[in-house]
Write a structure and sequence with these properties.
319 residues, alpha/beta, Rossmann fold, 7 strands, 12% strand, globular, binds guanosine-5'-triphosphate, binds magnesium ion
Length: 319
């Protein structure tokens, strides 16, 4: 039996192996990904993002339990769960992962961001696709939102949940970080701490503007993830947003945009991989760098040369 047979027979170990292939960017991917693509397309993807330590992992795990208890197939992708800001988070994540092991219908995978610019690892979309093809119905993707606009999570998920905490200035922070922009649902977690209600009303005022643009009534859900308070409501709001999307005419526009993003992503990856492996090898790179520094070559002409080599490779069937 091949790994793929095992995968389609529903063996979790095979899913793990396939995800490792994806992460390691193995040569078999060119054949593997279209097979997964054919089987995927049914899962609903929910992204949870927010500042370090806001309680994203705790929320994701409680949500996953709720789904799992209703016999739902759940996948969890935790991107970079060990942010340097929250010491001990990794240990917490490990303990939670062990708790989830009790549910046969939950599959969890952690990924490192590996220096890709957004909060999402480069292959997160493909890992989600593997889970989708495996039969996961809801995929929860956790990523830390620090500073930069988290556009990629919004692009690859159906519903984006931004998790904040009542600490002062957080709503302003969210505005700055562009988190306001991408959120479909806001969560104020750690609502056991003072300031949650004040923050909720501040947010609601800003959200009224957003609603006028999109027609979606942006919910602000107060939760206490550790005490399992508000998780049911969050689950209901996710379901409501899903319903809203399916009835929304702009959804067609988003679907088209998603495919476009996907095409560029694949193109970008394939071109860069070929160039890095076959054209801009270490030696060539060093030669270019020296020539550019010596003023003998400018970067524009260098790129022309790379493209010329690329076209020759294509013409010779080496691409
Ligand atoms: N008081 C309080 N603490 C909470 C609540 N939810 C989570 N925590 C605690 O907050 C800390 C961080 O929780 P995590 O779920 O690891 O937060 P995170 O956002 O995933 O953190 P990173 O992935 O490191 O960014 C943990 O010690 C949790 O127990 C809550 O509702 N109230
Ligand atoms: Mg976490």
């Amino acid at each position: 039996m091949t790994v793929l047979d095992e995968f389609f027979a529903g063996q979790k170990l095979a899913l793990s192996k396939i995800i490792s292939h994806i992460e390691n960017d193995g040569p078999q991917l060119r054949e593997l990904l279209p097979i997964l693509y054919d089987k995927a397309g049914r899962a609903y993807k929910v992204g949870l993002t927010g500042p370090p330590g806001a309680g994203k992992s705790t929320l994701v795990h409680k949500l996953a339990e709720l789904y799992a208890e209703r016999n739902h197939q759940v996948g969890i992708i935790a991107v970079d769960p060990s942010s340097p800001f929250t010491e001990g988070a990794l240990l917490g994540d490990r303990i939670r992962m062990q708790n989830l092991a009790a549910y046969p219908n939950i599959f969890i995978r952690s990924m490192a961001t590996r220096g890709s610019t957004g909060g999402l690892a480069a292959s997160t979309g493909e890992v989600a696709m593997a889970m989708d093809a495996f039969g996961k119905e809801t995929i929860l993707i956790e990523t830390v939102g620090v500073g930069q606009v988290e556009l990629d999570i919004a692009d690859s998920c159906d519903t984006t949940v931004v998790v904040l905490v009542p600490e002062s200035g957080d709503s302003i922070q969210a505005l700055k970080a562009g988190l306001m922009e991408i959120a479909d649902i806001f969560v104020i977690n750690k609502a056991d701490r003072p300031g949650a209600s004040k923050m909720a009303s501040e947010l609601s005022i800003i959200l009224d503007f957003k609603k006028q643009k999109t027609g979606w009534e942006y919910p602000v859900v107060k939760t206490e993830a550790v005490n399992e308070i508000g998780i049911d409501e969050l689950k209901d709001k996710i379901a409501a947003h899903r319903e809203f999307l399916s009835a929304d005419s702009r959804n067609e526009y988003h679907r088209r945009r998603k495919i476009k993003t996907e095409l560029f992503h694949i193109l970008d990856k394939r071109l860069k991989a070929h160039i890095a492996e076959h054209i801009l090898t270490e030696d060539v790179f060093n030669k270019y760098i020296e020539q550019i520094r010596a003023g003998e070559l400018n970067p524009y002409d260098a790129v022309d040369r790379i493209i010329t080599t690329l076209m020759r490779d294509i013409a010779n069937g080496r691409f």
